[in-house]
Design a protein that fits this description.
The chain has no helices and 21 strands. It is mostly beta strands and 341 residues long. The chain has 2 domains: 137 residues, Immunoglobulins (Immunoglobulin-like, Sandwich); 150 residues, Distorted Sandwich (Glucose Permease (Domain IIA)), CATH 2.70.70.10. A hairpin with a 5-residue loop joins strand 16 and strand 17. The protein is globular.
Length: 341
């Protein structure tokens, strides 16, 4: 979904939750080693992944009445060392039917403005052809099914077009979770229905402000409100391509000199092969801080999801080069914490 409107020496503190990754291209930088080689420590975070069939109807709030509630940026996983790793299970399944694209569009990820061209993105996009099945990401109750032409569900009416919202009471640590499926060409559920995970709720379309066929998908935590969205990809386990090893997620937070998250701060992520050669280079950015909320267990302000496992070098420049290298395992999440000094 697209809304058209119109960096100092660093102390690098690393706390990594290893996942599987991909990146790289040739990007020649002077080398400055800030960290010694580190042995990662496995941890087993205590997470609850419940399957609940909701039996209540939640009320839709007016987004203008509820300001964004920032999630405290405090890493709940602490293995006692600078590098930690954990399997990432997720709470939701991907909302696209089998045999279709289940990975998100990385050109306009959560909390991105596409270099200031668009408003901060409150969800993610699954590009797929018209008619692609859209399925429930978890068992839930339909609390909205129809057009938002006369109902305010986002920043303005007719924003989502044909949209379905499911309520998932107490799905995450006693908090209610809401999933939103927008721009649909067809809706196949009705308000009040109980829906099982993987059941079809509609089909991909381009209604509302969509500029092409795709599913706009949101996760709202603690209330059905536009200001309470979190990055949906962190609610999925890393993707497993057919016949291949499971991918992983790379996430983290980059803080400024005053300890505040840096907004849309660019860095370089390079995939390194066994011979130390750069395979490919990526240029991710941190979240735009206007309207972005972190996963409550992570406090992240960036995510590079669904990347192949392997070795990666993360670097950025601020007067000099700072870099660190990490090896990421399949099916896991890596978490980095970087602090500007």
């Amino acid at each position: 979904m697209r809304i058209y409107t119109r960096h100092i020496p660093f102390l690098l503190i690393l706390c990594v939750f290893i996942a599987g990754c991909q990146s790289a291209d040739s990007f020649a930088l002077p080398t400055l080693e800030l960290l010694p080689s580190i042995t990662s420590t496995s941890i087993s975070p205590e997470l609850t992944y419940e399957t609940i069939t909701p039996a209540v109807t939640a009320a839709t709030k007016n987004p203008a009445e509820t300001p964004t509630i920032p999630v405290e940026r405090k890493n709940a996983f602490d293995c006692g060392g600078p590098v930690c790793q954990s399997t990432w299970l997720g709470e939701l399944q991907r909302p696209i039917g089998n045999h279709y694209r289940k990975t998100v569009d990385l050109t306009y990820p959560y909390a991105s403005t596409k270099d200031g061209i668009l408003d901060p993105h409150h969800g993610v996009e699954f590009p797929n052809p018209f008619g692609t099945p859209v399925v429930a990401a978890a068992p839930g109750e339909v609390i909205f099914a129809g057009s938002d032409q006369s109902t305010l569900l986002g920043p303005y009416k007719n924003f989502y077009g044909n949209v379905v919202i499911l309520a998932h009471p107490e799905l995450f640590q006693g908090q209610d979770v809401y999933t939103l499926y927008a721009h649909l060409s067809r809706i196949e559920v009705a308000k009040g229905e109980s829906i099982g995970v993987g059941e079809k709720v509609g089909e991909v379309g381009a209604t509302g402000v969509a500029d092409g066929a795709h599913l706009h998908f949101e996760v709202r935590l603690g209330g059905n409100d536009y200001g309470l969205t979190v990055n949906p990809v962190l609610w999925f386990a890393p993707f497993q391509p057919p016949g291949s090893q499971t991918f992983a997620h790379l996430s983290g937070v980059i803080l400024g000199i005053n300890g505040q998250p840096l907004s849309e701060f660019g860095f370089v992520l390079e995939e390194i092969d066994q011979n130390g050669h750069i395979v490919e280079t990526y240029y991710p950015k941190t979240y735009n801080e206007n309207g972005a909320n972190s996963h409550p267990l992570l406090g992240e302000n960036f995510l590079f999801p669904d990347i192949p496992y392997g070795t990666y070098r993360l670097s950025f420049v601020s007067g000099r080069v700072y870099e660190t290298t990490v090896t990421i395992a399949p099916g896991e999440l890596a978490f980095l914490k970087l602090q500007v000094d």
